[in-house]
Every structure is written in C-alpha cells, then in structure tokens.
Design goal:
This protein is mainly alpha-helical. Among the domains are: 10-106, Winged helix-like DNA-binding domain superfamily/Winged helix DNA-binding domain (Arc Repressor Mutant, subunit A); 190-283, Alpha Horseshoe (Serine Threonine Protein Phosphatase 5, Tetratricopeptide repeat), CATH 1.25.40. The protein is 59% helix and 7% strand. The chain is built from 12 helices and 6 strands. The strands form 2 sheets. It has a 3-stranded antiparallel sheet with strand order 1-2-3, with helices on one face. A hairpin with a 5-residue loop joins strand 1 and strand 2. The chain starts with 9 loop residues before the first strand and ends with a helix.
C-alpha cells in the first residue's frame, strides 16, 4: 500500500502529469496548482520552501495575496488526495502533503512513482555498464527508458524553478538512451539498435555520440555506405548551422569505416565506443 490509510497511488511525471488511485484521479486541472504539485513531486520527501513555490508561480514580483493564494492551492491539492485516497483531509495533511517549517513536503512512500523507479533503474544500469556487466546494464537501462511516456511534465507550465529541473530530466533521459545503446553494442546487438538510433537522429541532429553509435551499428550490420552517409549528413548540418566540422574522433571513425578497420568488427566487447574511438585515434 502506498499509504497506511489509503490505496495505491500511481504518480507519473515522465510525460504528462498524472496521479491516480484506481479509477480516481488526484491530478489538478488548473495550471498553477499543477505547477505547485509538479515542483513538490520533483523534490519528493524534501521540503520545498514557500518562497520557492511563490517564485515558481509569480516570478520575482508576486502579488500581495501570493501567500494566501498558495495556501488555497495546497488546500485544493489536499482535497484531491483525500478523495482519491479515501483518506480524511486531516490525515492527508499529516502523511501526504505536509506543512513543514518554512514550506511544504510531498511524502512519497510508494514504489509506483515513475521518477523514483527511473532513477533506481538508470542508476543500476550505469553501475553495471561501468563494471562491464553489459547484459544487466542493457536490461536495466531499457527498463528505465520504457518508463517515459513523452517529455517530462509536458502538460505543466514550467516557471523559473521547474524549467531547469525538467531540462535535467531530459538530459538524464538522453544519457540513459545513449548508455542503453552502448550496452547493446557491446553485446553485439548492433542490428537491434538501428531503429532506436534512426529515430534519435531527427531529434538530435547535432549530437556527435549518437551519430557515432549509428555509424558503428550500420557498419557492423554490413551497411557501410549508409554509415558513411550518416557522417556526411552530420558534417553538412554542422557546417551549415554552426560553421564547425565534426570532431577529430568522428573524422577518424569515418576513415576507419572507409578502410574497413578490423577494430570496428570486434563484438561483443567488454569496453565501449569511447575506448574503440581511442583505439582508432592512437593509431
């Protein structure tokens, strides 16, 4: 059970904001209460100062009624939780959305919080990858990636405090995708990652490491011309939009593909793409 007196609470922030309890919802519909809840959820089990919540909602020039209005939003959220969890409002204030000295705290003791599960799985995946446990790494990182239903908090209006936190989550998501692909490349599952990488290319047109992964996966799949075309497309995009050439490592990877360097064919590997590029670079 998520809460002693309640039912299981499902919390979703890796995509649209959603809090449900069976067929009941605890998700507010008004924009500002949604922002309050989102900030509390991203810092679950930590006190969020009143000043931070006010800044998120109104910036540096809040109205005179800001504190009273914030208290009204918190009361509204507690009523939603009370109804969804079949829990008295007084108990919600003690065990779910708690008033603390100087702020408020959302207490999450549920394993059904997608962000908590994501951070646990991605952390385990990173550790396994660093230890060369590539099968376990691929499993955990794929599980972590599957928890995402779209951009984080995509339907919440992000203010000055939420924006950097949402950006951090999106960066973490991209890193998890890269590391998951890395683990599968080490296992020799290069054909398996092609569709994932093809989809990432449109969204991250200037991301060199994803392009390098795509080039290696295509080359190992017997599609050398396509691998070289990926490099040329990246080079054209970078020179036209940034006035820059791809990095030396990407150029060396291109040359390795052109010369059919045997180092590119070694799979499965215990080391990764970075070590492979290092090996090519020092020749």
């Amino acid at each position: 059970m998520s809460y002693v007196m309640g039912r299981d609470l499902e919390i979703r922030v890796l995509g649209p904001l959603m809090l449900t309890c069976g067929d009941s919802t605890a998700t507010p519909t008004a924009p500002k209460p949604r922002s309050v809840l989102a900030l509390l959820l991203l810092q679950a089990n930590q006190t969020v100062p009143v000043s931070a919540l006010i800044q998120e909602l109104w910036g540096h020039e809040p109205p005179a009624s800001a504190l009273t209005t914030l208290q009204t939003y918190v009361l509204h959220l507690r009523k939603l939780f009370s109804s969804a969890l079949s829990m008295p409002a007084s108990e919600v204030a003690k065990s779910v959305l708690v008033t603390t000295p100087g702020g408020y705290l959302f207490r999450s003791i549920s394993d059904d919080f997608d962000l908590a599960r994501y951070e646990r799985l991605s952390g385990e995946g990173r550790q396994a990858l660093a230890a060369g446990q590539n099968g376990l790494a691929a499993e955990r990182l794929t599980q972590a990636q599957s928890l995402w239903r779209g951009p984080a908090l995509t339907d919440v209006r992000a203010g000055p405090l939420l924006q950097p936190q949402v950006k951090r989550l999106e960066e973490s998501r991209l890193t998890t995708v890269e590391q998951g692909i890395e683990a599968r490349l080490r296992l020799g599952r290069h054909q398996e990652v092609l569709s994932d990488l093809a989809g990432m290319m449109a969204e991250h047109r200037l991301h060199e490491n994803l392009h390098a992964q795509f080039m290696v996966a295509l080359h190992r799949s017997g599609r050398r011309q396509e691998a070289l075309r990926v490099f040329q497309q990246l080079r054209t995009t970078m020179t036209e939009e940034l006035g820059l050439e791809p990095s030396k490592r990407l150029h060396l990877l291109q040359q390795a593909i052109l010369s059919d360097d045997p180092a590119l064919e070694v799979a499965p590997r215990t080391d990764g793409l970075a070590q492979l590029l290092d090996q090519i670079t020092v020749r």
